[in-house]
Amino acid sequence: PDQVIPGPVILRRGVTTIVATHQPTALPVDPEDQEVPPPALQTDFGIDTRNDDYTVFHITVPAVDGRGVTRILAVVGAAHDCSRATAFTELCHGAVEDVDVTLNCYRNIDTGQTYLENRWLAGIAEERWIRRVTHLTVPSHSAHDSRFITDNQRALLAGIDGTCRAPGCENPAATADADHVHRFDSDHPDNQDTPRTDTEKMQSLCRACHNDKTRGLLDYTRHPDGTTSVTSIDDGHTVTTVPTGPMARAITTFDQSLARRVAARAEHEEARQAWKAITSMALTLARTYDGKRGVRDIPF
Ligand SMILES: [Zn+2]
């Protein structure tokens, strides 16, 4: 009820999935879905030195690589408080050693489809990105007592939400803030019997929408099924937004999958062990898909 009308990007992806399921031959040519030309045809590096005072670089790379480079330049720029152009030259000189950038790839073990940051990858790009993978995990909901969200928790949240969860906003969740839907009550810390950082009580909000929430213009309620009701303080209207990321419909907790169906303790323990076996098998499968390269360790 009251679900907000999804934006054009989300609508197009949704309709494409439906058509692909029922009548693949009717699919329109989709720029996101096209056969990717060989990397050699997608890259170009132009250097313009006509001016004595500055040099202009004109660089062409495949869109998904561009996304990675843009993220890296933005993070380096923010960490060193410099422009992206300065960050680029510092990176070329190897002068940046203190900055970590996390780009999340999501792989569906059943279909082998891989999703980077905010789009599904096509075949060639998929292989290229999988070769860059350094850490593997099977993400699931988790909670801890610290105020700060871990990389794994952030990856899970972005993977579920897909975009900022404010109505009508399509900014990618990958670069959004992780927002505690209900503010932590620092005046009454003793009243909180639940952990401070619980991914089931958090959502992705881009900086602008996060500011709107902080200023009290919108009131958010997160429901157990992952939907969010958003009430405008201005006119009192309530709309519902749904998660649209690659993990929006994934089963992310043992509780969701089995716990409700098993009553006896022994039965419960058995089911829990089976769930653990499934997740470790998923990791093994993911590693097999990865062509065995670049995998250092599996942090949990
Ligand atoms: Zn937003």
Task: Describe the overall structure.
It is a single chain. The longest helix is centred in the C-terminal third of the chain and has 25 residues. A hairpin with a 6-residue loop joins strand 3 and strand 4. The chain is globular. Helix content is 34%, strand content 15%. Among the domains are: 46 residues; 101 residues, no CATH class. The chain has a 3-stranded antiparallel β-sheet, with helices on one face. Strands 10-11-12 form a 3-stranded antiparallel β-sheet. A two-stranded antiparallel ribbon has the order 1-2. By secondary structure, it is of the alpha+beta class. It binds zinc ion. Zinc ion binds next to helix 7.
Helix fraction, binned, reads 25-40%
Distance between the termini: 37 Å
- Radius of gyration, in Å, reads 22 Å
pLDDT averaged over residues: 80
Strand residue content = 5-15%
Low-confidence stretches: 291-300
Strand order of the largest sheet: 3-4-5
- Bound compounds: zinc ion
Largest sheet properties: 3 strands, antiparallel
Q: Say how many strands there are.
A: 12
| Class computed from helices, strands and strand pairing | alpha+beta
Write the H/E string, N to C.
HHEEHHEEEHEHEEEHEEEHH
So how many helices? 9
Envelope shape: globular
Topology:
Elements: H1 8-22, H2 39-42, E1 44-48, E2 56-60, H3 63-80, H4 84-92, E3 105-107, E4 114-116, E5 119-120, H5 123-131, E6 143-144, H6 151-161, E7 177-180, E8 197-198, E9 202-205, H7 207-214, E10 218-222, E11 228-232, E12 238-241, H8 254-257, H9 265-289
Antiparallel strand pairs: 1-2, 3-4, 4-5, 6-8, 7-9, 10-11, 11-12
Helix pairs in contact: 3-4
The chain binds zinc ion.
Zinc ion is lined by residues 164, 166, 169, 171, 205-206, 208-209.
